[in-house]
Amino acid sequence: MTDTANEQAEAPPGISFTINGATVEANPGELLIDAAERHGVYIPRFCYHPRMKSVGMCRMCLVDVDRGRGARLEPACMITAAPDMIVDTESDQTQRAQEGILDLLLVNHPLDCPVCDKGGECPLQDQTVAYGPGESRFVEEKRHYEKPIPISDLVYLDRERCILCDRCTRFASDVAGDPLIHFIDRGNETQVNTFPDEPFSSYFSGNTVQICPVGALTAEPYRFKARPWDLAENESTAVVDSTGARVVLQSSRDELVRVLGVDSDAVNWSWLSDKERFTYEANGSEERLTDPLVRSESGEFATARWADAAAFAAEALQADPSLIGVIGGARLPVEGQFMWSTLLDALGVRDADPQIGDGLETELIQSLPRATIAEAAAPGGVVVLLSGDLKEELPTLYLRLRHAAVEDGASLIEMTARATGLSRFAKAKLHALPGTIDDVAEAVAAGTTSETVGGVDAAELAMAAKLLGSGRPVTVVIGRTNLAEDPGLITKAAAAIHRLVPEAKFLPALRRGNIHGAIETGLARGRTTTEILEDAAAGEVETLVLLGADPLADFPDRALVSSAFDMVENLVAVDTFATASSARADVILPAASFGEVDGSFVNLERRISPLRAKVTAPGQGRADWMIAAELAAALDHDLNVTSLDEVRTLLSSTMPAFADIDWSNIDAGGDGPLLGATNAVTPSLADIAAATSVAVPAVDGYGLRLVVDRKLWDLGTMVQQSQSLAHLAADTTLALSPADFDALGVQDGSTITVTGPGGATAELEVSASAGVPRGVAHVPYRMNGFDVGTFLSASTAVIDVRVNAG
Amino acid sequence: MTRLHAANELLAKEVIARYPVKKSALIPLLHLVQEQNGYVTNEGMSHLAELLDITSAEVLGTCSFYEMFKLEPVGRYVINVCGTMSCQLLGADELIHHAEERLGIKVGATTDDGLFTLERAECQAACTEAPCLQVNYRHEFRVTHDNFDSLVDRLTADSKKNGSAAIPPHGTLSQTRQQIPAGRAVGAVAPDEVNGPPVWLPIDEPEETS
C-alpha cells in the first residue's frame, strides 16, 4: 500500500489535454503524435519515426490545435502536448489539410502500385485510402526519372516514388552515421541520391528499405519475390551474431523471403544490420546439406538413411569419453545445446568448447558481473571498448553505443587494437601495440599516466583514468581485440579495469550467434578448442565432434586444425552446410537451420528470446535436439524427450539459470527476460587473471606486430551462402600507419611481400590507414585472396611479420 | 588535376580553422573549388569531404542546392538573361532568342570556344531596368539586341587580353583577397563559448584616475 503511494508521489505529473473531446494525460515532453497514439488516436504520418528525431517534413500529421486562441493547424510530430491544449484530429480543417497534403504528395507519385513491392503494405497507399481526397485535381504529366537505380549492391532507389520524407537520409546520417545518401538539388528537382560512384555501402542500408513509407527504396533480395498479402510471418531472433536482434521472419510458399527488424526496446530498437537482415538467403542455398552422409570404404561420401548414419556416429561416440572432444555449438538453439550437453554428460565427455579459438575463456565469461545493453548505453555512462570493431562484429550493438555516445552523453574509452567505427566518438583512444593491452590497462588502473605505454600517448591514458575515476557507471565491452594475440592479455586488462572500478559491469562481445546459450547450458566444459586440437594433433583424441563448426576455415591456426584432423580416428560433423571441415568428416548429420525449427536464443546480455520456425527444413535436416536425442537412444542413454516442450521442461528443472523461465511467454515474443543466476562456481576475475600468464616476446625492430580482426562481409559460411552478400567480401589487403611507409620503403597501393612467423610469405596490396598504430600491420580475417589464418599460431602470444617492398 | 591545388589546400585549411565546426567552412570552400576550376568538380567535392571530415554526398547535397555553384563546366562568361515578368513584358523572350542566334547555342549550353554560357534566369531585382541580364553576376540594363551584340564583341575582345579584364572569368571570387589580421580575427570560438564583447569592438580602456 505504501509502496503504491510512494510510486504515485514520485511519478512525474501528467499533462492533461483534450483530444477529440476526451481528456487524456501525456507525459512531460511527449510528442503530441505519440501521446495521441497511446490513447488510441492515430494521426497519419510519413516522415515521423519514433526512433529518430522529428523533422516535420511531410506535413501529414497536421491537426487542429487550440491553445486558447482558436484552432489552427500544427504538425503533431513537432509539438509536445501542453496543458489544456484542445486537439481535434477529425475537424473539417484537419481533414481538408490531410486531403490537400495527400493530393500534393501524389502530384508526382506514380500510380504503379500494382507492380510496386510496397503495394499492400504502403503507408502512402493506406493513408490515401483513409484520409485522401478520393480524386486528384491534377491532370499534368508526372515527373520522370530513370526507374530504379541501384544506390548500393543491396538497395534500389526509384526516385519517382519518393515523397522526400527524409527518413532514409536521416537514418543514414543520424542513426547509422554513414551519410552516403543525401538530398541532392532543390525545389521540384530535389531527389535522394548518392555521390557519383560512391554507393550507399552502409552495413545498415536495409533499414532504409524497411522505414521507407513508399516503394522508393527496395531491397535487392526481396524485389518482386512476393506480395505482402501472401506473406506469413513469425517473430524470431537474429542468430548471425550474439546481439540477438529481434526480427520477424516472413515467408511465401514455404520459402523465407524477407526479414524485418522488430522494435525491441531492450535490444535493437527496430534496426538490423544487413547481415541480420539478408542472410536468410542462406537457408535456400543449394549447398544446404539435405541428407545424412557417411564416408564409404572408397573414401567418398554416400547418402545414408538417418538410422544408419546415426548408428555410425553413435559408434564413434562409444570411444573412451576422455578421448572425445566437441568443438562448436554456437549455431544451435538453446534446446539443441542443452540436449547435446545432456548427451555429453551421459557419456561422460569432459571436453567441449563452443568457441573456436576466437573468443574468450568460458570461465572468464562466467565470472564477469554482467551488464545489459540498456545499462551499457545508458545516458551519461562510461563505456570501455576492450573488443574488436563493433561496427564489423556486432553492428546492432554498435548502433546502440553510437546513439549513447552521440545523443546521450556516454563517454567511450577505446581499447581496441586500431581505430574502429566508434573511434570518431571516443573520448580516449588507447590503441595499444599487440601484446601490451594489459600493461596499458595496468597503467590506467595504477594512475601512472605520465608516460607513453604500449604506444599509447600519456594524454590518452590520463583521459581514460579520469573518466574511469569519475564515479560514472562503467561498462566494459569485452571481446577479442586481435585474433593474432593471446586472449589472456584481455583477461589481465579486464582485471586491471575491474580493480580500478570494482562496480564496473561487463558486456561480452563474443561474436558467434548463440554462444551464450552454449555457455549457459553447460555445453562449454573442460578444455578449450585450442587444447582439444593440440591433443588431437598429438594423437590423444579418438573422436572429434564438430557441432556446426568449421575450424579448418575459422580457427586462427590452420596448421594445427589440419594435423588434428589427420590424427583423429573419427570426425563427426553436424552441420547445415558442407564446409571445408565437414568435407573431412567421416559422417555428416544434416541439421535444420534458423527459421526452420522452434527453439530459443540467449544473447550477450543473457536475455532469452524465441527462435521460431517459419519454413520446413530441406531434405532430411532435423532439429539439433532431435539429433542429440537420437544419438543418445542409439547409445543406450535414452534422454526421454519427444518434444520441444519436454526438452524445455527438462532444461528448466536441470539448469538453475532457466528455472524461472516461462516458456509460453518466450514464444509469445516481447523483449524476453534475463536468465536467472547459475550455480556455477567460478573463481573471481582477479584470480583468473592472476592464474593467466602470457609471455610476450620483445618487439623485433625489423618486424611489425600483426593485428587480425573480422569484417562484417567475410568468407564466413552465412555470408557466402547468401547470394546477394557473397560478393561483398573484399580482397585481403594489409594496412599500415602512413608513418611506417617511409621506413619500409612502400607506397599506398603497392604490392609488398609479407613474411609470416614460419617463413611463409604472401604478396599483398598495402594501404595507408591513419587508424593503424605505428609498428602494426593490420590484416582482416577470412577475406578473398590470401588467408591470414595461415600466419596465426595458437602457441604464440603475438605474431610478428616482416614486410618488404616489391 | 581538379582537386584543390597545394596553395588552395593551404588556404582551405586556414579557412577551416576559422570555424568552431569544420563543416561550417563548406560553402566558402565550394567557392574556392569553383574559383579554381570554373565549376565545382566531383574530385574537388571529394577533396572537400576529406578536408572537412564529412562524406562526398553531404558536400554534393549542399553544393547542388545553390544555383550559383555549377556542377558542369561553364563558359568564361555566364550570361543570365532575366525572364521574369517585367523583363518578359519588355522583350526578354525575344532577347533570349536573339542571344541564341548570336551565340549559336540553345539556352543552357556553352559555346564551342568555351567563352559563353547562356542561361535564362529568374528576377534579378532590376525590374525598372528591364530587360536586364547578368554577365558573371554583373548587371547590364535595358539590353537591346544591338547592346547584346556589342557586349558579346567586347567580352570576346576582353577574353583575349591577358590580365585585367573588366569582367573576370566565371568563378572568380574577388580581384583582391581580403586578409584579416590574426589579432582581429574572431577565431574558432563556438557561439556559446563567447565571453565578453565581440573582438572587433574597440576596447574601452579604463579611464585613468589622476
The CATH topology of the largest domain in chain B turns out to be Glutaredoxin
Tell me the helix content of chain B.
25-40%
| Major β-sheet annotation of chain A | 7 strands, mixed
Report the CATH topology name of the domain at 307-359 and 515-600 and 612-659 in chain A. Answer: Rossmann fold
* Beginning-to-end CA distance, first to last residue of chain B: 66 Å
CATH architecture of the domain at 307-359 and 515-600 and 612-659 in chain A: 3-Layer(aba) Sandwich
Q: Based on DSSP secondary structure assignment, what is the total number of beta strands of chain A?
A: 33
Helix/strand-derived class of chain B? alpha+beta
Total helical elements of chain A: 26
Q: Strand tally of chain B, please?
A: 4
In CATH terms, the superfamily of the largest domain in chain B is Glutaredoxin
Largest interface: A-B, 15 and 13 residues
- Beta content of chain B comes to 5-15%
Rg from alpha-carbon coordinates of chain B: 22 Å
Q: How many structural domains of chain B? A: 2
* Mean of pLDDT of chain B: 88
H/E element sequence of chain B: HHHHEHHEEEH
Brief overview:
The complex is a heterodimer of chains A (806) and B (210). Chain A is an alpha/beta fold and 806 residues long.
Overview of this protein structure:
The complex is a heterodimer of chains A (806) and B (210). By secondary structure, chain A is α/β, with parallel strands linked by helices. Chain A contains 26 helices and 33 strands. In chain A, strands 15-14-25-24-23-16-17 form a seven-stranded mixed β-sheet, sandwiched between helices. In chain A, helix 14 crosses helix 15. The termini of chain A are far apart. Chain B is α+β, with helices and mostly antiparallel strands. Chain B is 37% helix and 9% strand. Chain B has helices at 6-17, 26-37, 42-52, 56-65, 85-89, 92-103, 145-160; strands at residues 77-82, 116-121, 133-135, 138-140. A four-stranded mixed β-sheet of chain B has the order 2-1-3-4, covered by helices on one side. In chain B, strand 3 and strand 4 (138-140) form a beta hairpin. The model of chain B has no long low-confidence stretch (mean pLDDT 88). Chains A and B meet through strand 8 of A and helix 3 and helix 4 of B.
